[in-house]
Structures are given as structure tokens and as C-alpha cells.
Amino acid sequence: MVVRKMDEINMKILNVLQMNSRTTYKEISKIVKISDVAVHKRIKNMNAIIKSFTILVNQQEYGKNTTAIFDITCETGKSQEIARKIASIEDVMEVYATLGKHDIVAKARTKNMESLKGIVEKEFFNIKGINEIRTSIVFDCIKENVSLVM
Fold first, then answer.
1. C-beta of residue 70 within 8 angstroms of C-beta of residue 87
2. FRET label pair with 38: which of 12, 54, 89, 92, CA 20 to 30 Å apart?
3. pLDDT tens-digit profile of 3-23?
4. Tell me: the pLDDT tens digits for 82-131?
5. Could you give all domains of the chain from N- to C-terminal order, each with its CATH number?
6. CA 57 to CA 101: how far, in whole Å?
């Protein structure tokens, strides 16, 4: 992993884009006080840092009313393979390979409890090498942020 030095202007550009990824180069140029061409070049040169331009969806309004966190323990040497299989499940939003008590932590968002049950019974139970799944149902999201605080 290469750690890239970020100057103050690049950090300001990233902060603006994290607040609103649809901000135009011209608007950013006014904020950071450089030309819009320079903003464009800087953003292009940050392609290793900026993974994608995206939006944060209100999941309830979209019909995803149930969120669950899964703590998964796997057979030795199987966690990467299992994590990739879990990541391919449609309603699974995040998958992390972890150190500690559990090998994988995953988050899923589904329409309701019935569809969550379907994920567990039809998807997870068919993945060979999973020893244990502990499921936590999220009843209130206190903070959700995909931005890096700088």
C-alpha cells in the first residue's frame, strides 16, 4: 500500500466532494481558489484515493427496512473464499474479513424479516465452511457515514 501525501488543496477538494459528489469543477475552484482546469487535473490524479462518486440512499424510502449485522466464524483457511461468496449475495452491502472472535463481519439490508430469513436459510446455510453465524438486527441507525473525516 502506498500512502500518498495530500496537500491542503487536495484535502479541501476531497472534503467538498464528500459533502456532494455532484459539485462541479467550477464550484470547487471557487472554494479552493484554483482554476477549474487545475481542479479537474487534481481529481484525475487522485484516482487511487477516490474509489467512486456515489450517493447515500435512504434505505427505508427505497424499501430496505431491515438491516442485519452478521458475525461469522469459518473453518480454518476458508474465510476469504466464504467472504467472496457472501459478498456476491444481492442484499449484502458490506463484507469485512476480520481478526478476533469472528472471521467475517457482514451487513445486509432487506425488505423485511422474511427476506432476511431467506438470505440466512437459502444463502448462508448453503455456504460450506461456515461454522457459526450470529445475527444482530439493527433497530436504529445512529450514524452512517461513508466519508473519510479529514
1. no
2. 54
3. 456 889 999 999 898 888 889
4. 999 999 999 999 999 999 999 999 999 999 999 999 999 999 999 999 99
5. 1-55 (1.10.10.10), 59-138 (3.30.70.920)
6. 31
Say which residues have a Cβ less than 8 Å from residue 147's Cβ, sequence separation at least 6: 18, 19
Residue 85's CB: how many other CB atoms inside 10 A?
19
Integer Cα distance of 108 and 17 in angstroms: 26
Mean pLDDT for 48-53 is 82
Q: Distance between CA 54 and CA 51 in Å, rounded?
A: 9
Q: Three-state SS across the chain? A: CCCCCCCHHHHHHHHHHHHCCCCCHHHHHHHHCCCHHHHHHHHHHCCCCCCCCCCCCCHHHHCCCEEEEEEEEECCCCHHHHHHHHHCCCCEEEEEECCCCCCEEEEEEECCHHHHHHHHHHHHHHCCCEEEEEEEEECCCCCCCCCCCC
Instruction: Return the amino acid letter for 34.
Output: I
Q: Are 66 and 137 in contact (CB under 8 A)?
A: yes
